Amino acid sequence: MEEIQNMQMNRISLKRLYHINASSINMLQRLASVNGTKRTKIEAFSAYVWRIMIGTIDESHKKCKMVVGGGWKRENGPGLMLAKAVLGQDGPALVVSSGQRFPVSEVDFGFGSPLLGTVYTSIEGVGVGYMNQRPSAKGDGSWTVSAILWPELAAALKDDPIFQPMTASHLQL
After folding, report:
1. Closest Cα to residue 46, out of 93, 95, 90, 118?
2. Burial class of residue 132, CB neighbours in 10 A (0-12, 13-18, 19+)
3. CA atoms of 118 and 96, how far apart (whole Å)
4. What is the DSSP-derived secondary structure letter of residue 171?
5. Per-residue pLDDT tens for 59-77?
6. Residue 83: phi, psi to the nearest 5?
7. 13-26 pLDDT, tens per residue?
8. Rounded (5°) CA angle 96-50-13
9. Partner residues linked to 16 by β-bridges
10. How far is CA 146 from CA 30, 110, 118, in A?
11. Residues 6+ apart with CB under 8 A from 12
12. Rounded distance, CA 134 to CA 132, Å?
């Protein structure tokens, strides 16, 4: 408990919202599928994000981690591996979670279907970066990605052709 109370604050606090075109998702899947092995869209997306992420990690870190849609597996016996990673004590980490089964376009609170569904946290100083991708409410195969990032990763995604900052035109407003 003392470790948690005395942990240093980190810089993972930038919240971003992105749009990814269906054509980009399909291209990533084609590029990730080799030798007759078809990769899922989330596998292809995660591999792409990994390549960007590792370019933003300071060389002083000996390792970094990514979790895709599930919990960490500890290979060296019991312990607080997940907790340490989430608290930022085990090197840079990014969780990529899938909201593919969340039916954004089917939700109706009496005002019609929403144009946007997002994930949000108000936890300050969370020790792990986070991305949640889910179908766009447009229903055209594009994705909405909510993210909590460290500054270097946000900067790398700013100029990336796949990660488009969400705009009113993406929502057809």
Report:
1. 95
2. buried
3. 14
4. T
5. 777 777 887 875 744 455 5
6. -60, -45
7. 788 999 999 999 99
8. 55
9. 147
10. 24, 25, 6
11. 88, 125, 126, 127, 128, 129, 148, 149, 150
12. 7
